Amino acid sequence: MTSATTFEILPAIDLRGGRVVRLRQGDFERETAYELEPAAAAAAFAAAGARWLHVVDLDGARAGVPAHTDVIAAIVAAVGAGTKVEVAGGLRNEHSVAQALDSGAARIVIGTAALREPALAGRLVAAHGAGRVAVAIDVRDGRAQGHGWTTDVPGTGPAGTDDAGTDATGADVMGADAADVISRLADVGAMTFEVTAIERDGLLLGPNLGLYERLVRLGRGAIIASGGISTIDDLRSVREIGCSGAIVGRALYEGHLDLGDALRLAAESE
Question: In CATH, what class is 8-267?
């Protein structure tokens, strides 16, 4: 398959309790905390040449409302104009999205909200532009998950409530096949999809290339890969199947992958 025209490396900064952490397979009980100040970590990534940062408010994702607004504002200030910051976690309505963008985020990432109400994604694209709105497609066993990856039963929401996601036709979205979800969201204007293979996330086991290739072949938008990426060869593989970028976290923090090498690989596609 032809490589993506451009390929971005997005170092991840996951926030929990004000700290930089990584979870394994999205499990809050399997957390690794790093002795890094979030804004300082962001500034270091920016100084190394990163053009994007992927910042996740894990507490916000779990609670459904942003929990690290001040920390994220400090990150945006620390990196300056040369590095764009995208923000994810707890962005479930127009108000929280507008606040994140007003704080200086270049792009927001919605997941649960898009699965519950695809029309919301369409409204956000209409209001802010497709370039400022990405959708997180977090996949377990081929199906899209939400609610901080704690819900995997179609048609149910937090605490077992009947909080099913529906698209404009009334079909279920939460727990639906990832390819179907992307197609439905593309229909309302979404153009960027950040796809995490939950079973690989935080484990350094390599990317789920079969999943990404299947979704790239849909031709319904840019696919950014996340989950398991730990080597230059992993990055090269996701780029060669047509992904537009890759989100990398633990591999950078623990020295498995050098950011400079990753950025040089990305530059080869330009």
Answer: alpha beta
Q: Each residue of 71-107: pLDDT tens digit?
A: 999 999 999 999 999 999 999 999 999 999 999 999 9
Q: Where are the domains of the chain?
A: 8-267
DSSP-derived pairing of the beta strands 8-16 and 19-24: antiparallel
In eight-state DSSP terms, residue 28 is: E
Burial annotation 168-196 (CB, 10 A radius, 16+ → b, else e): eeeeebbbbebbbbbbbbbebbbbbbbbb
Please name the residue that has the structure tokens 């780029």.
239
245-248 and 222-226: which strand pairing?
parallel
Give whole-number Cα distances, 135 to 41, 46, 110, 191, 253, in Å. 25, 24, 5, 8, 25
Q: Which residues are catalytic?
A: 14, 138
* Structure token digits, residue 143: 């199906």
Q: Which residues contact 268 (CB under 8 A, 6 or more apart)?
A: none
Gap between the Cα atoms of 222 and 238, Å rounded: 12
